[in-house]
């Protein structure tokens, strides 16, 4: 995300769990390396939003893989993801929204309402084997570790009111953008055409963009 006043592009480096600033001169300056989540899993910064009212960054922290209570490797730990607020000048971080399951992107509107996309909800499915034939159209259906068609988009009002669920049952939403009173969200993360199980049985991954409106007066 870009801060026009500072002339800086803020970058989420997911492989390093780090937030950095890129100047117009091409200089990258690390701001902070994020702390591990509650059970030690990687705090993957999956999405960023710039709050023009304060100059803060909102960072969606996606829970990295972890072993569950029985020792099985799972894609995430439910309710461990969160949105944090980062002051890029000081590096100060504080929790903004907690108890999320797979926070993959965040957006904010001009009034300060916050929008969160979660890739999936509920308990994770089995992690996909490394040798899975992703490009084979006849491969058995595999969810890839995330329950398909369980994603959602939620609005968190600036006045502290109850969260408003704007969309549910989405197939693996990933990117979220707010513009002119509407949200645009991408769905269908994964290899296009790969077999998966949907609400009505066998289907295939289809990427698309959805537009959500009517949630603002």
Account of the 3D structure:
With 217 residues, the chain is an all-beta fold. 0% of the residues lie in helices and 47% in strands. The strands form six sheets. A four-stranded antiparallel sheet has the order 1-2-3-4, with no helix packed on it. Strand 5 (43-51) and strand 6 form a beta hairpin. The model has no long low-confidence stretch (mean pLDDT 95).
Quick rundown:
The protein has strands at 2-3, 8-13, 18-23, 28-33, 43-51, 56-63, 66-67, 73-74, 81-86, 93-100, 103-108, 114-118, 151-156, 164-170, 176-179, 182-187, 195-198, 201-204, 208-212.
Outline the fold blueprint.
Elements: E1 2-3, E2 8-13, E3 18-23, E4 28-33, E5 43-51, E6 56-63, E7 66-67, E8 73-74, E9 81-86, E10 93-100, E11 103-108, E12 114-118, E13 151-156, E14 164-170, E15 176-179, E16 182-187, E17 195-198, E18 201-204, E19 208-212
Antiparallel strand pairs: 1-2, 2-3, 3-4, 5-6, 6-9, 7-8, 9-10, 11-12, 12-13, 13-14, 15-16, 16-19, 17-18
